Amino acid sequence: MEYFFLLVGIAILVLAFMILSRFTKAGKTGDESAPPAPGFVTCPVCGMPLSKGENLHSKIFRPMTTPDQRMTVQGCPHCYPRVMPGISRRCPVCGKPLSLDDELVARLFNRADNKKHVMILGCSKCMSPRARD
Asked: What gap in Å lies between CA 68 and CA 61, rounded to an integer?
């Protein structure tokens, strides 16, 4: 009978330890002060590398089923809707400085293997109105 109470006591301690360790680990994902690792994509407007989870602000125009679509790119979280200090917005084609109202005109190619490719054609300043369509 002594061993029964000893085993029940040990089981309760193990269960309590497991529950407490689960609550203390909840919400911790490692070193929280470390910045996210940069990805392999850079913003075409400001040239800053995008971290995982950061996306470009862009608009894609219909029709969605074609392999080639028109799109505009406004920028990344570093340069749009507010420009961070020390970052300049420039067109990668003509090199002119861009204001927050300017955008890049691009073509989005939808490949058969569900991958996408973007080709920057220019900015709203260097593209002629007819070429933007």
From this structure: 10
Beta bridge partners of 72: 59, 105
AA letter at 95: G
> Residue 118: which domain range?
38-123
Distance CA 85, CA 59 (A): 25
- Contact between 73 and 104 under an 8 Å Cβ cutoff? The reply is yes
**Residue 56 located in a structural domain:** yes
What's residue 57's pLDDT?
92
Task: Name residues whose C-beta falls within 8 Å of residue 71's C-beta, 6 or more positions apart in sequence.
Answer: 58, 59, 60, 61, 105, 106, 107, 108, 118
Residues of the chain predicted below pLDDT 50: 26-27, 30-32
List the structure tokens of 57: 């602000």
Residue 10 resides in a domain:
no
| pLDDT at res. 31 | 47
Tokens representing 127 are: 């593209």
Residue 94 lies in a domain: yes
Q: How many domains does the chain have?
A: 1
- 5 occurs within a structural domain: no
